[in-house]
Model the fold of this input.
Amino acid sequence: MLQYGEKVRGMSGGELSTELQRIGDPGDSPSTQMQTALLLAQTRAPADLARALGLLQRVSTSSAPDAKPLQPLARTLAARYNEQRRVEDDRDRQVAQLRDAQRRIEQLNDRIEALRAIEREMDSATTARLTPEQQAVVSQVLRGFLAGTETGKALERRFARGKSVKPHAERS
Done:
């Protein structure tokens, strides 16, 4: 059985399909069930891995005399395939989380760009049109809203004492 497992490990997808067709229905033969399970596990398809686990379970619980020598191997393979299934499920979950995170990053980058566009519009001419009293009100509102943030500090500098700071696009 180990030699057969080694043989199928190197097979391509087409060769696996051909071999599965050659074996056919594993029926109640523990040896054929093991061979089919080894083949199915190599296809890398989740449904085939589930079928392979089912066949290994049948061999593990079989009372047939020819199943007894195969049962330790069937249990070992079942444990390995269950672990493989868990790892693949974790990988799929992480891929989905990564896609979700990338989508959120794109949304946040869009928001940042929109804020930068607003900042570019608020050039020194905008600040110059405000009276000192208006600048003080804007500064007080923004201080309260953005207290402790980098944006709050930047706006504080922009509206402080009626002086304007160059817009973001003109800096550096």
Summary: Confidence is low (pLDDT under 50) at residues 164-172.
